[in-house]
């Protein structure tokens, strides 16, 4: 039996970063997005993650984004700030900004582009944690980082108090299970799944919360799903998840011969949010291309079928 | 709502192939293994899969294995026969042998070693199905085959009556969910998960059954897990799965610097079965190395902790 | 300085396996192909390699192919026989057939589909060599086998007399250089490159010979290239290689959305050979698709630009 | 016949970034390193590449590094500045700094961490080139970037005047050959190989110059190798390359169970340079570990065997 009291639980959407058609940060849209999330009852917000196009933003824009989110949240829920940089010293620069701007926790990946060993990845997290006094979540995202955090490394880092949890977008549910079992006696370890379409399953398997990109579009759905799971109403959780899994088809609206994974995914979420009136434009960052009119129509169809319009 | 009545359900362990210390097929051990499975209440048996070391066996030994299993099962449950060969004509040769030897269904992968397009993989399954009149399951095992069967291809093949289901060892639970949703109206499509440690989760997500290598060692556990899930006792299913997930550590008993994935996995299962007295030897096929005395002790510890000894 | 006297040198094309439109072995075409190769002055022939569609052929057809080649070659050059099977015992079965059918040397890959460690791969080659008394070349083809033979492993196997050389289709020219340097004092080690378009470069780097699939189509070109290199006429070697590199565009004639790597590559070679009148049909093995009329025209254009028609 | 007059030729080492034991930029060491390179007769210098640990450096340190190099070179050879960032806007920020600091050309990779399509990669290079008026080389480094620039994309970008060449560290010599052939009529396209141990081969194959990390340690060797190749003395080129290929073993001095690729590679170069007295310390950036005393001894042995000490 797990005896953990995880530090973070619930639905923690990774916010998209609304842009104007000209590519500038769209502050009013971001404020509306945050407000809509809070109203839906999310437990926290993850700023400057992959869904937030962090990797495409200059440091100046990143600072603006975090400032707006922290100000709008106004302490109602914790704000986790992605500090997504390829190496230790560069993560620390971002982590210090996050601290200064009022974030409640940091999220960092293993080094990327860099060619590092497991022991160097371990050192990376220790150095980041030692440099900035905020809770730290390790972000496991092999599709972007091209290394996978092993259960053994996560376990050691958690037991040593270096990380407070994992934001697990690995899609590797076997290692997720093994990690959660290894840490089931840990007092506060948090395992947040980045899944969008098997969240019911991973909550059953022991995850403490969920960080779904699709939660930008339908936070109410994920809150209902999470609540049903917590109350042991697994059939209800599955039904809600099946509906959300169909809605997730908005990430397949883009023509993939010209749109990469981010344009299709984040671009799909932004297009849905624009159709729903939450944000003004579905613009994305260079060099991504935004969804066109045909693709927008396909997104609209999915929104209708999911009962959102 | 799913309206499927899947063709196959329940626990369908992929049988290991017991060998004598000299490397010959150990028929009495195989008979005992089959008997133990039937006694535990499995719903079917998968012969000549990856756990069965098929890829290491000559055609003569493969025939023997299948003959023994079919004879021992004696029609009590369906026997699925792996026809694991790199290309169409070679799969058909094995499929004809399986038919002749009394198998109830065929299991085949996409071509491997071969460099083929998706449309050629699609043609492969159609040609196999056309050549031998037995139900056909597609075996999705990218770790060995090095291609992943896409939800779109599986959906088309199922809708066209080419395949009756998938034995899904991909570990890609997102595509599993998407495939099951796409086929929820199909009358008989079967989705069998090859997971061992997130079976509770994947049953919640909609899988019809499970083909767990670890089921060789603890079929009773998987039958209990499956039954709990079917009866909606999800907390019980999770508890059983957590126990089995710990037991799965027997695949980590081997020193991985000299044992590859098959030696560690199948070798771990065989070592456990030998310790439990079901089979005589933990011998494996060339060029694999069998687990040594130290590793055997580690397996024994896991068996004890799981309550099996 | 290298002091090796390699066991094999020169141009050793990996023969395609001509099929009739009905898919049967086309013996007269195969005889013509072999004769054309011998006339061009090749130093050896590689039967039943990847270009030979071995992986698609039943054992019966494989035997026929080797029988025809050995009979037609009639001892004029050595015949290397691919024994391409996923595991040790299965390779040995094919190696015994190769010995019985008169092959002069064996070519085998590391295990594939199988999940094995480096020490198990090492054991694999030792067991194969111990079972059949013929020279053995290791076939390094990670695009199909999905493991790479390391310079360290090759060096040990060569020094221990297990392998006589490597047929290197890895495309990893760094490890090729390192392997050749490590074995420069070996009396007979042979490093054959599987390159088609950087053969001049790899002969300069120290390779002893070349096994070019494109040599099916233009053996004279590769013989001229090899001869120029051996005589130190490197500018001539480069010019010939540049011409052959352009000719290699025949493997890009196929529409890759429906033709995989084998259909495009082997299919391109066969289409060229059919256009040149060496073989009758460009048919390929199931589930591959043969090149269509449009693609055939593109191949014809390349043949003309290379001066072959 | 190629009719190109490439914009850049010769030996263009990618400079390491010397650090003090405390991890600060070691300016005098960097000045000595640049001076040693110029004295050896290199044709250009590549600042802030992978060997320069760019990915580990803060923007402030990157600026310092480039300032020192440009000042020390003082116009004697062109200085190419790596602008290694994951996305377009971030590359442009670095490119503007490079222009301001006096670089002669820019080097940028495709986006990384980002999930982009080929057409988005193409747009990336066009946007970077449009933003800063300096010659631009595309840096093809799939081991870090995790995408490969295709010959088709490079050809189009070169023909459209977007890029002036490629710094090719892909190790894919087939695509290198195909790219060079496709652009053989281009007036100024430059193909620089990032190889260290098959440079003779790739110069024969048509490369215009070389960017060898090992050139930090032995620039004289690479200048001799390049000169021999340009003068058609291919046997001399090969002999020099063989010597340098042996010297390259310094990157294998580190214990790879704890040192990743950068620690072993850049760390090996730095250790050699420290032993040669060019730089003071073999310190590397966090989270990399520096080579220890045992490893340093192994590097020393290689230096002696190569005749450098």
What would you note in describing this structure?
The structure is a homotetramer of 309-residue chains. With 309 residues, chain A is α/β, with parallel strands linked by helices. Chain A has a domain at 10-219: Aldolase class I (TIM Barrel, Alpha-Beta Barrel), CATH 3.20.20. Helix content of chain A is 45%, strand content 9%. Chain A has twelve helices and eight strands. The first copy, chain A, has helices at 27-40, 59-73, 88-100, 118-131, 142-145, 151-159, 173-182, 199-204, 219-230, 234-247, 261-275, 293-305; strands at residues 10-11, 45-47, 79-82, 105-109, 136-140, 165-168, 190-193, 209-210. An eight-stranded parallel sheet of chain A has the order 1-8-7-6-5-4-3-2. In chain A, α8 links the parallel β7 (190-193) and β8. In chain A, α9 runs antiparallel to α10. The model of chain A has no long low-confidence stretch (mean pLDDT 97). Chain B binds chain C through residues 55-58, 84, 86-90, 93, 111-117, 119-121, 123-124, 127, 143-146, 256-263, 265, 285-289, and chain C through 55-58, 84, 86-90, 93, 111-117, 119-121, 123-124, 127, 143-146, 256-263, 265, 285-289.
Distance between the termini of chain A: 43 Å
User: Which CATH-level-2 architecture of the domain at 10-219 in chain A?
Assistant: Alpha-Beta Barrel
What series of H and E elements makes up the topology of chain A? EHEHEHEHEHHEHEHEHHHH
**C-alpha geometry of chain A:** globular
- Give me the side-by-side strand order of the main sheet of chain A: 1-8-7-6-5-4-3-2
Give the full name of the CATH homologous superfamily of the domain at 10-219 in chain A: Aldolase class I
> Average pLDDT across residues of chain A?
97
User: Which percent bin holds the helix content of chain A?
Assistant: 40-55%
Strand content of chain A: 5-15%
Oligomer description = homotetramer
Name the CATH class of the domain at 10-219 in chain A.
Alpha Beta
């Amino acid at each position: 039996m797990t005896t953990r009291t995880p530090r973070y639980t619930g639905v923690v959407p990774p916010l998209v970063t609304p842009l104007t058609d000209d590519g500038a940060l769209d502050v009013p849209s971001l404020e509306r997005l945050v407000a809509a999330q809070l109203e839906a009852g999310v437990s926290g917000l993850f700023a400057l993650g992959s869904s937030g196009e962090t990797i495409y933003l200059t440091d100046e824009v990143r600072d603006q984004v975090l400032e707006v989110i922290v100000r709008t949240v106004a302490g109602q829920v914790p704000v986790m700030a992605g500090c997504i940089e390829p190496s230790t010293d560069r993560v620390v620069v971002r982590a210090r900004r996050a601290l200064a701007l009022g974030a409640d926790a940091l999220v960092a990946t293993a080094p990327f582009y860099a060619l590092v060993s497991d022991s160097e990845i371990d050192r990376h997290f220790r150095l980041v944690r030692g440099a900035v006094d905020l809770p730290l979540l390790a972000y496991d995202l092999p599709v972007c980082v091209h290394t996978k955090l092993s259960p053994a490394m996560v376990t050691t880092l958690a037991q040593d108090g270096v990380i407070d949890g994992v934001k697990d977008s690995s899609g590797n549910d076997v290692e997720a299970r093994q990690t959660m079992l290894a840490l089931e006696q840990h007092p506060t370890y948090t395992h947040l799944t980045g899944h969008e379409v098997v969240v019911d399953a991973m909550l059953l398997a022991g995850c403490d919360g969920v960080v779904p990109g699709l939660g930008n579009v339908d936070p109410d759905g994920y809150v209902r799903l999470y609540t049903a799971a917590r109350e042991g109403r697994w059939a209800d959780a599955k039904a809600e998840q099946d509906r959300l899994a169909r809605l997730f088809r908005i990430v397949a609206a883009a023509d993939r011969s010209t749109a990469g994974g981010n344009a299709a995914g984040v671009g799909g979420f932004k297009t849905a949010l624009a159709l729903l009136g939450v944000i003004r434009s579905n613009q994305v960052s260079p060099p991504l291309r935004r969804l066109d009119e045909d693709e927008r129509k396909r997104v609209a169809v999915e929104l209708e079928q999911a009962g959102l319009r």
